[in-house]
Design brief:
four-stranded antiparallel beta sheet; 11 helices; 26% strand
């Protein structure tokens, strides 16, 4: 069973197209949903949860129809919204218990689990403190506890490190990393902070202006730049560059012409030993040779730029 399987999903708010013909099929695991602010990330999560109805299209999440399966889905998915969503005057344990009630748990079980998950996220000593007295970091952990109270199969986390200072962000990421390792739960992480996704997620979905422009694992997406290398050398600049160009090696456009440290793209079937052979013939010494391992930030800008310049489809 696919974790998420949706087809031709669209959703607008007046003249604003938040989602445009989204098609997405994902396996269980940890998934990072990334995109600029306004890309449609939060809208997609809310449609998957049944909190918003799509204008067109449909699909399933955990096998439940997103149009009609909300009651069945409620007990299997935990949702951590971006907004604080606190209820003034409630205490921490009361808030998490209330979340358990909403997820369909018997009240006594919800109360017991509330104490357990508050201890798990490090808020055991604050369980009887009123929510308006919580710091931003503690509110984020409280929302995570509320999403975990019914022990869901899938967690949908919308900007879980939003508003946190560097220390608080580290604490939250470590908590999520431990949770994933210990429980094996599937996690859908929605964020514009690419470092969070790179640390936690196996699969990536890139959303741009309401459209999925790429989805898959980092390894699958990096395959497109597996023929790129970074070179540095000592010796004559122009002679080595010219010799490389003569065998079909292309230089990245952003690289300055007067530099002995460059990024190059090699032709199919190229052997890295050729770099050394050409260097020896050109009278230079290679000081660095490494394959280009594209990080998520560079990958994101590459695929969104490609999408922006792709011809429009009808």
């Amino acid at each position: 069973m696919q974790l998420v399987d949706i087809h031709h999903l669209s959703r607008s708010f007046g003249s604003v197209h938040a989602l445009r013909d989204v098609n997405l099929s994902l396996e269980s695991g940890t998934i990072g949903l990334i995109g600029n602010n306004g890309a449609g990330k939060s809208t997609l999560l809310k449609v998957l949860l049944g909190l918003l109805k799509p204008d067109s299209g449909g699909g399933t999440i955990l096998g439940c129809d997103i149009l009609h399966g909300t009651p069945d889905l409620r007990g299997r998915v935990g949702y951590m919204p971006e907004a604080a969503a606190i209820v003034p005057m409630l205490k921490g344990v009361e808030f998490v218990t209330f979340a358990g009630d909403l997820y369909g748990m018997p009240h006594r079980d919800a109360r017991r689990r509330a104490h357990e998950v508050l201890n798990y996220v490090g808020l055991g000593e604050l369980r009887y403190r009123r929510l308006e007295e919580y710091s931003i970091g503690n509110l984020q952990r409280l929302k995570l506890a509320a999403a975990l109270v019914h022990d869901p199969q899938l967690l949908l986390l919308d900007e879980p490190t939003n508003g946190l200072d560097p220390a608080g962000r580290i604490v939250m990421l470590q908590l999520l990393e431990d949770l994933i390792a210990e429980t094996g739960k599937s996690v859908f992480l929605c964020t514009h902070l690419l470092g969070d996704v790179e640390r936690l997620c196996q699969q990536i979905v890139v959303l741009d202006r309401g459209t999925v422009v790429r989805a898959g694992t980092m390894e699958e997406m990096r395959d497109q730049v597996s023929n790129r290398y970074e070179l540095s050398w000592e010796g004559p600049l122009d002679r080595y560059r010219a010799a490389l160009a003569n065998v079909g090696i292309r230089f990245a456009e952003e690289q300055p012409e007067r530099s002995t440290k460059v990024m190059v793209t090699v032709p199919t079937g190229f052997s890295t030993t050729t770099f050394f052979e050409i260097a020896r013939a050109a009278g230079v010494v290679l000081t660095e040779l490494k394959a280009d391992e594209e990080n998520l930030e560079r990958l994101f800008f590459r695929v969104t730029e490609q999408a922006a310049h792709a011809p429009a489809t009808t």
